[in-house]
Design brief:
Elements lengths: L8 H11 L3 H5 L8 H5 L2 H13 L4 H4 L1 H9 L4 E4 L9 H6 L7 H24 L6 H26 L14 H8 L5 H18 L16 H14 L3 H13 L23 E5 L10 H5 L11 E4 L1 H6 L5 H6 E3 L2 E2 L5 E2 L7 E3 L22 E5 H14 L3 H14 L10 H11 L6 H7 L3 H7 L16 H6 L11
Antiparallel strand pairs: 1-3, 2-8, 4-7, 5-6
Helix pairs in contact: 1-4, 4-8, 4-9, 6-8, 8-9, 9-11, 9-12, 11-12, 12-13, 12-17, 13-17, 17-18, 17-19
């Protein structure tokens, strides 16, 4: 069993060595030893196999510096931050939209997601052969398919169509690698696989409330429904997005927290607004997510990158509590009583990544204990529902969902909404949450928004990030590059 999926490092390392090593290792079976299937038919071991897939989300190349760079620093929500001389390797180029295929952030994100997909495929290969109790087997398969779909959702948003690897790969099978691992599928095919995985996950997963307390944080039916609603939104499948977001809302598993700022504090972890979040506390941590964005200067709380932009600060309506809950302004007094001093390097920092050493239970080493990263939230579902409703001509529904958010934000309700209103509300509600760049791209706002931020968006190129040059080289040129790179 696990406690909030806060995995024991020793167990996971052992399991990684056993099940995610090379194929030759898996085939070495002394005659007097248990087979992998025998071993995994112990339900506790089957659960640990799936825990190994979750554990990938804690790695540096998943949600740390590179992900922050290509989802936030690149957008008009944030600046590079830190100091003029500390470029973060390629973060200055990301901020200026002068990035290219050799920049490390793209390779990190690519490798991280395919590592996760590799683990998921291996887990599914074994899970489907097990004779454990059927409901547990189905639940574990559903969890893994959700995690695989989440990896592909990140990849398709970043790179467009990508190789679809959905079976266990024999690393010694050159033909399989050349025909599967190094062949890009279309964007449509990639989304179709995401939909397939999520529909199966929805069928197999329990509701959030059905999990025992020590399994809190696992993927649930609502998580799979929420991700599918978002995937439909990105494809402009308005009716499907509307219906699926409605399924999340009607489940009565989620609600907005009363205080917007509490969502990102320790007290908000796995709370009523949480649909899915990476469980980071009491493990090796969500590696450097907080460090990267911690205030820099005296006292030094981090590297100081990904600072909220003046554009973001000025985009909030007067009286919107989300402004002061999303941005640390220097100087100020923080929610825990800590004084943000003028000796910090930058005038603004990301409040949502702030981790209190005064009022929260981490031990001072952010690489060992970290706050959970919110991936899917109920507020996002309300925004998805509103946007889909607008496109379907259901303005009353769209307005009601926007007013749900405005009321919590301390703003007056509105009588109707335009698409521009919904997207403005989305920026305010989801500030610094790694969606802004993708929202600009999918809604066609990127050229105008980047120009207003003093950057040049190249139409026909910047809609997608470059396929990492290292991956093209490794493929022997089989992987094709995106236009303009």
């Amino acid at each position: 069993m696990i406690c909030n999926i806060k995995f024991k490092t020793a167990i996971l390392l052992l399991f990684t060595l056993i099940f995610f090593s090379c194929e030759d290792d898996l085939n070495v079976e002394p005659s007097n030893a248990l087979t992998e299937i025998d071993f995994l038919n112990d339900p506790n071991n089957a659960v640990q196999l799936v825990n190994g897939v979750y554990n990938k989300q804690l790695d540096y190349n998943m949600y740390a510096f590179s992900w922050i760079g290509i989802t936030s620093i690149v957008s008009d929500d944030a600046d590079k931050g830190s100091t003029l001389t500390d470029t973060g390797v390629d973060k200055g180029r990301l901020d200026n939209l002068t990035f290219g295929p050799t920049d490390i952030s793209f390779n990190d994100v690519w490798i991280g997601r395919y590592d996760g997909i590799y683990r998921a495929n291996n887990a599914l290969f074994y899970l489907e052969q097990l004779s454990i109790e059927e409901s547990l087997k189905n639940r574990l398969i559903g969890e893994v398919k959700f995690l695989r779909a989440l990896c592909y959702f990140d990849l398709v948003r970043c790179f467009g169509g990508v190789p679809l690897v959905i079976t266990k790969i024999d690393i010694n099978d050159t033909a399989q690698i050349n025909e599967v691992v190094f062949v890009r599928k279309s964007k449509t095919e990639t989304y179709a696989q995401i939909e397939t995985d999520l529909l199966d996950a929805i069928d197999k997963l329990p509701l959030k409330g059905a999990y025992a307390p020590n399994d809190k944080g696992r993927a649930s039916k609502g998580a799979a429904q929420a991700l599918l609603a978002k995937a439909y939104l990105y494809q402009e499948k308005w009716q499907q997005s509307f219906d699926m977001s409605g399924n999340v809302m009607s489940s009565a598993q989620y609600s907005l927290m009363t205080n917007y700022a509490d969502v990102w504090k320790e007290i908000g972890e796995n709370g009523s607004e949480s649909i899915y979040e990476v469980q980071a506390t009491l493990t090796k941590g969500l590696q450097d997510y907080t460090n990267v964005q911690g205030p820099r200067g005296t006292p030094d709380l981090g590297w100081g990158f990904n600072t909220p932009s003046l554009s973001l600060a000025n985009s909030f309506e007067p009286g919107d509590v989300r402004r002061s809950s999303s941005i640390i302004f220097v100087p100020s007094v923080l929610w825990d009583g800590f004084v943000a001093p003028t000796t910090w390097t930058n005038p603004r920092y990301n409040y949502k990544s702030y981790q209190s050493s005064i009022a929260e239970s981490w031990n001072g080493d952010r690489t060992q204990t970290a706050k959970n990263l919110r991936i899917l939230k109920y507020s996002d579902i309300l925004l998805i529902r509103a946007e889909a409703a607008y496109h379907l001509g259901l303005n009353s529904e769209a307005t009601d969902r926007i007013n749900d958010l405005r009321t919590r934000a301390g703003l007056a309700i509105v009588n109707s909404v335009t698409l521009s209103d919904i997207l403005k509300e989305r920026r305010a509600e989801m500030a610094m949450e790694h969606d802004r760049w993708f929202d600009l791209i999918r809604t066609g706002q990127a050229p105008t928004a980047m120009a207003a931020d003093g950057k040049t968006f190249i139409v026909g190129t910047h809609e997608l990030f470059p396929i990492p040059q290292n991956q093209i080289i490794t493929s022997g040129g089989l992987l094709t590059q995106n236009p303009g790179y």
